């Protein structure tokens, strides 16, 4: 499994975005915050609920300076077909990466080899291309965009405020902590 602060490994792939096919590589993840959001497959059951939730919250991610890259082992042609036929997936404005060879899924260590699909994995990448948050769930457990937004806000806050950390359940605007000897045993 990749570790926190590990750099994203090189990749280049086809993607579907905004009605077009494009090329995307790890270089596209640098210079901004990014969420790489793996899901098992197009035309399934839990996946469209997650991807629609991201689509419904995409403007909030954009306001935070975050680009979303959804990834499955399907081809970019399949992403387009799903986008064109599913009302939920039709809402998507973010980039849908194709990973038919499993390279990206293996780079992030979420490939289920015997199934040829990715686990549900979420990775928050900072502007330097380093992983700052990792979540992997089982196939039957969907993820929440609202919870992810809170993780993004906390990671961005910590990145821009050296020496401060965000406690559990922290929300933007709430008090943070400055780790020091005088806090030990007092929390």
Shape: globular
Main structural class: alpha+beta
Q: How far apart lie the N and C ends? A: 32 Å
What are the low-pLDDT stretches, counting only 5+ consecutive residues below 50? none
Percentage of residues in helical conformation = 25-40%
Read across the widest sheet, the strand sequence of neighbours is: 2-1-5-4-3-8-9
Element order: H for helix, E for strand:
EEEHHEHEHEEEEH
Q: Based on DSSP secondary structure assignment, what is the total number of beta strands?
A: 9
For the biggest sheet, the summary is:
7 strands, mixed
Annotation field: number of helices: 5
Content of β-strand: 15-25%
Mean pLDDT: 96
Keywords: Antioxidant, Cytoplasm, Disulfide bond, Oxidoreductase, Peroxidase, Redox-active center
Subcellular location: Cytoplasm
Catalytic activity: a hydroperoxide + NADH + H(+) = an alcohol + NAD(+) + H2O
GO molecular function, one term: NADH-dependent peroxiredoxin activity
């Amino acid at each position: 499994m990749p570790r926190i602060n590990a750099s994203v490994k090189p990749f280049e792939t086809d993607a579907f975005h905004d009605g077009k096919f494009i090329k995307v590589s790890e270089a596209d993840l640098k210079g901004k915050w990014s969420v790489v959001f793996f899901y098992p497959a197009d035309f399934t059951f839990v996946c469209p609920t997650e991807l629609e939730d991201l689509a419904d919250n995409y403007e909030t991610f954009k306001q935070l300076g975050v680009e979303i890259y959804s990834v499955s082992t399907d081809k970019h042609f399949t992403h387009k077909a799903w986008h064109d036929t599913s009302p939920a997936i039709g809402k998507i404005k973010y980039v849908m990466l194709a990973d038919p060879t499993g390279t990206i899924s293996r780079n992030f260590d979420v490939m289920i080899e015997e199934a040829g699909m990715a686990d549900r994995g979420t990775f928050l990448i900072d502007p330097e291309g380093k992983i700052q948050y990792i979540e992997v769930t089982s196939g039957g457990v969907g993820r929440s965009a609202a919870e992810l937004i809170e993780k993004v806000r906390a990671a961005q806050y910590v990145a821009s405020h050296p020496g401060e950390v965000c406690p559990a359940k922290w929300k933007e605007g709430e008090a943070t902590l400055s780790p020091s000897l005088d806090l030990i045993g007092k929390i």
